[in-house]
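Re: that backbone. Tokens:
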């Protein structure tokens, strides 16, 4: 089994910064894409940023220039550096990892438990 543990959420004032981290552990052969999603009450989860194993990144337009996603393949971690935070960034943030396990041909999507980010005006 694979587990993803997130940390770094909290309460911050507008204009502030936070760093979210996510560590994957368990039966891991290789992790393909890793990503961060966010979700607000009554809305579907939305992709915020993703990063391939090779380092290619994709961002939703609203966070470009403010958020940076990175990963450490040796440690099986993914990080989201958030700066210039706005009240509209308030959401629960979830990390994902597309994991290949030994002897299994297809990757499976694993989700973290979510961490709350609240930005006050």
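Recovered sequence:
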């Amino acid at each position: 089994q694979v587990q993803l543990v997130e940390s770094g959420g909290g309460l911050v004032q507008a204009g502030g910064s936070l760093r979210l981290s996510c560590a994957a552990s368990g039966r891991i052969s290789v992790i393909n894409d890793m990503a961060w999603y966010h979700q607000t009450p009554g809305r579907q989860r939305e992709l915020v940023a993703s990063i391939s194993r090779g380092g290619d990144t994709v961002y939703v337009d609203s966070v470009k220039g403010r958020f940076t996603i990175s990963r450490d393949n040796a440690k099986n971690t993914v990080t989201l550096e958030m700066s210039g935070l706005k009240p509209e960034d308030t959401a629960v943030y979830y990390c994902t990892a597309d994991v290949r396990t030994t002897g299994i041909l297809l990757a499976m999507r694993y989700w973290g438990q979510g961490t709350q980010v609240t930005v006050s005006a």
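The chain has no helices and eleven strands. The CA atoms of residues 27 and 101 lie 6 Å apart.
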